[in-house]
Amino acid sequence: MKELAQLTKAIIECTELKKIQDIVRDALDRGAKPMEIVDAVTKGLDRVGDLYERGEYFLMELTIAGSTASDIMAMIKPVLESSAIPVRGKVVIGTVLGDFHNIGKDIVIAMLESAGFDVINLGVDVSTERFLSAVKETKPHVLAMSGLLTIVVDEMKKVIDALKRDGLRDAVKVMIGGRAVSYKFANEIGADGFGVTAVDAVRLVKKWVEGK
Amino acid sequence: MTELRIDTPHTEMLMFPEKYWAPEDRPAVERIDLLKHNADVRVRCWDRLGFSIVRANVALTPPVGWSAKVLSSMEAKTLSEKMGLKYMPGTFVDEWGRGTVYDPRCGRWVHQYGTLTSIEDWNKWAANFPDPFAEGRDASARITIKLAQERGMAVFGYIRSPFGQLFDAFPIKTYYRLQLEHPNFIRRAVQAYTDYNCDVIKRYGELGCDLVICIGDLAHRDGPYMSPRIFNEFYFPEKRRRVEAAHKVGIKYVKHTDGDIRSLLNGLVNIARVDGIHSLDPSAGVDIGIVKEKYGDKIFLMGNVAVDSLALKSEEEVISETKECIKKAAHRGGFILGSSNSWYAHCKLRNCLAMVRTGKKYGKYPIQFS
């Protein structure tokens, strides 16, 4: 269906949101299945991610593509729900206590949601207790913690220590990301991985949840 | 040697038992007095540290006629529903449309979210664009400059870049969409913020400032927030207008930005024609030595002992990094030593002081490391 190819292209080219929404409506009118829309969006996002990692695209394109994908997901949500497509996995995410930055985290959320993951966003300045209770209540596949300020690195370790203390460490994969952290730090505090960029973070979640 | 800012816990530790306030949410009359008090404490603190330059702020200091309205839970909820944005209780929206929240660790108010959601919102807000000459706006700066001049210190004045203002006033995705889909609106807004900044720069000149530092990051760890082409086309020509306004009143213009700005340096130097660049963020891969080699004949450099090092490393490592910084950037002059941003509350004060001691020991011309 030509609309699906158009949709992928429009996401890659950061086309005006209204035009993209028209393409989605046309595709649905012509009988496209919700999962085909999701796949077209994911293809577009993957390409935007490639271009970002190659330095041809910047945070602007990554953010626009992610937010467009979120808007499309919201648009097709009623159809998606009625077609009972299983979610790919569940992710709890938040910026750790003492840090109010949300840009990187929100891009990761948009990209995860559009890739079909159920994302529980705890927001910014999230305490160890809130991370812990969210893990207990929602039983996610992945716990993702973000932080820009160096002060937060202790908070990430506290969360992992609390997971160990409560016997939950093996029940969830822990990913960290943000300016303040690194591969080395992820290893030091016992996280399972470090998402260098938003694209990398999504790749890591897919790998963990689906073994891809 | 100087810093962009020293967070309150460090200032209070250095000036014990004196207090340093965060009065932005207070009624105007109280706020202005507390800011004047802060100016006094700050100048004495920075002088005691041996800094040669101290900060004054006209651009972002609210005037007498403005008071913060801190949101209650109910007001935050109502506004969130009305605006489709997350307003938080305990925050206030500042003069520039930025949701501002108190950070108890740093002892200051920080911008948390943009409250404008459309061009119409911005137009409504801009109908009462902040007045650079409003009464009270320069009250604390005047004290700062007077006290600094008595001590033989230079003064830098703050302005915030139009990019930073727009980036803060809108949610990020809205701002990016506007940049892409409504370039004429962006041009108009950038001009309006620049007009304001030019007036403030003129005031800094009249008050006796020596340089102006334009804050507002253009990049993050992995690169610029937008393509260098967009910065070169939309933002740097207007920056040049601000640089020229500074030169007209005999002061130098410095651009501060964190992040990996290597692909923006050419535009900053050759289109905006800034006099200096601050930060040169080593944690984002910027090597001050390479920047010195490439642009050292055109600009002076400020920085760049990593804030991350001040927070996480040992005194010995900070001393070594500071020496390295001086070695790479101080030769032939044109270098002001400092951290790669500010003395945040999470930086170890002993590391900050180690940087200062090292600067005093090795930072005198002629530079010698025998």
Question: How is this structure best summarized?
Answer:
With 212 residues, chain A is an alpha/beta fold. Chain A contains 9 helices and 5 strands.
> Shape of chain B from CA axes?
globular
Helical/strand content category of chain B: alpha/beta
Average pLDDT rating of chain A: 88
Which percent band covers the strand fraction of chain B? 15-25%
- How many β strands of chain A by DSSP? 5
Structure description:
The complex is a heterodimer of chains A (212) and B (370). By secondary structure, chain A is of the alpha/beta class. Chain A folds into two domains: 2-82, Methyltransferase, Methionine Synthase (B12-binding Domains), Chain A, domain 1 (Orthogonal Bundle), CATH 1.10.1240.10; 90-210, 3-Layer(aba) Sandwich (Rossmann fold), CATH 3.40.50.280. Chain A is 58% helix and 11% strand. Chain A is built from nine helices and five strands, in the order ααααβαβαβαβαβα. In chain A, strands 2-1-3-4-5 form a five-stranded parallel beta sheet, with helices on both faces. In chain A, strand 3, helix 7 (153-165) and strand 4 form a beta-alpha-beta unit. The longest helix of chain A has 24 residues, at 59-82. In chain A, 51% of the residues are buried. The mean pLDDT of chain A is 88. In chain B, helix 8 (183-207) packs parallel to helix 9, helix 11 runs parallel beside helix 13 and helix 13 (315-329) runs parallel beside helix 14 (349-362). Chain B has 370 residues and is α/β, with parallel strands linked by helices. In chain B, the strands form three sheets. A seven-stranded parallel beta sheet of chain B has the order 1-5-6-9-10-11-12. Chain B is globular and about 65 Å long. Chain B is built from 14 helices and twelve strands. Chain B has a domain at 8-63 and 117-279: Alpha-Beta Barrel (TIM Barrel), CATH 3.20.20. Classes of the chains: A alpha/beta (212), B alpha/beta (370). The A-B interface holds A 14, 16-17, 55, 58-60, 63-64, 66-67, 98, 100, 103-104, 106, 124, 149-151, 153, 179-180, 197 and B 101, 103, 105, 110, 112, 172-173, 176-177, 179-181, 220-227, 230, 283, 307-308, 311-312, 344-346.
